[in-house]
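Tip: read the tokens left to right.
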């Protein structure tokens, strides 16, 4: 156990150090590859895509949450999602997700068990979709269209099987302890139609995110196909997730620069793209999340929670 703890502390640090060194090595030629500025139409399309991705993220929860707990209004949901998402920048392993469950309870009255199920399903779908799409793209590009279709079919079949298994967990696992019975009861409330809809929304989010970023890279002067870029983009997202660092900081960026260089994008231009892409998909949500947290009064909510638990 001590070895595991040491690895969790030092491996992310070493990965971040190596990624930082790799990125710093490219900075001296950074300005040489800023070949063009994206046209106004590209910026409009990118910002429109950003807004669409956020709408799709909210829509996933509007499909899942009503099945778990009746809601009077979805109005605070946007603030809850942005505020909790911004906290992912403060620690590893998506620290904002437990805060999201807390905010769903305190702001919208969703019980902790129902909120936990909603967050686990939504986050699990996003990660599963990312892995599945990466596998499908890799199979399509390197093994042929038939292999890509087969990989997609297997991924869909796996999703249906896992969902069917989750629906039957309550009949297999013991009903005690109480929290487990409550959790399994909330899982059983999920319908296949709603979870399939959330799955399609997750797929759309991932693809629109990649498409908007591809438009940005092409606008900067790169020549790269959308499938090749999307595969590199998704692989870098997975690398950032596996690094355990907040939002994959450094590791995701260095991975993307390296992967893009392997498909013909000069590393300095890739670094330029990563910096601007981070501005849109990381810094902008962080700023919005801070504003949403201030609007919700997260500080006061957390203090009241600590006082209650202490008492």
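Filled-in amino acids:
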């Amino acid at each position: 156990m001590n070895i595991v703890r040491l690895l969790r502390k030092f491996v992310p640090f070493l990965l971040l150090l190596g990624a930082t060194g790799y990125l710093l090595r490219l900075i001296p030629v950074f300005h040489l590859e800023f070949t063009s500025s994206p046209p106004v139409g590209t910026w409009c399309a990118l910002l429109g895509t950003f807004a669409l991705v956020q709408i799709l993220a909210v829509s996933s929860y509007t499909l899942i949450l009503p099945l778990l707990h009746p809601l009077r209004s979805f109005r605070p949901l946007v603030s809850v999602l942005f505020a909790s998402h911004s906290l992912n920048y403060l620690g590893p392993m998506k620290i904002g997700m437990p805060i999201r469950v807390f905010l769903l309870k305190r702001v919208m009255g969703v019980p902790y068990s129902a909120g936990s199920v909603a967050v686990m399903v939504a986050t699990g779908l996003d990660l599963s979709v990312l892995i599945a799409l990466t596998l499908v793209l890799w199979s399509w590009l390197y093994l042929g269209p038939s292999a890509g279709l087969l990989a997609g079919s297997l991924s869909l079949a796996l999703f249906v099987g896992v969902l069917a298994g989750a629906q039957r967990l309550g009949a297999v696992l013991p009903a005690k302890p109480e929290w487990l019975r409550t959790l399994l009861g909330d899982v059983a409330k999920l319908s296949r139609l709603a979870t399939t809809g959330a799955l399609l929304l997750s797929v759309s989010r991932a693809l629109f995110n990649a498409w908007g970023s591809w438009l940005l890279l092409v606008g900067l002067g790169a020549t790269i196909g959308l499938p090749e870029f999307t595969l590199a983009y998704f692989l870098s997202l997975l690398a950032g997730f596996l690094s355990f660092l907040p939002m994959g900081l450094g590791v995701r960026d260095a991975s993307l620069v390296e992967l893009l260089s392997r498909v013909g994008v000069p590393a300095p231009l890739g670094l330029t793209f990563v910096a601007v892409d981070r501005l849109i998909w990381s810094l902008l949500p962080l700023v919005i999340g801070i504003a949403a947290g201030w609007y919700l009064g997260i500080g006061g909510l957390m203090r009241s929670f600590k006082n209650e638990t202490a008492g």
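The two ends are 33 Å apart (CA to CA). Residues 39-298 form one domain.
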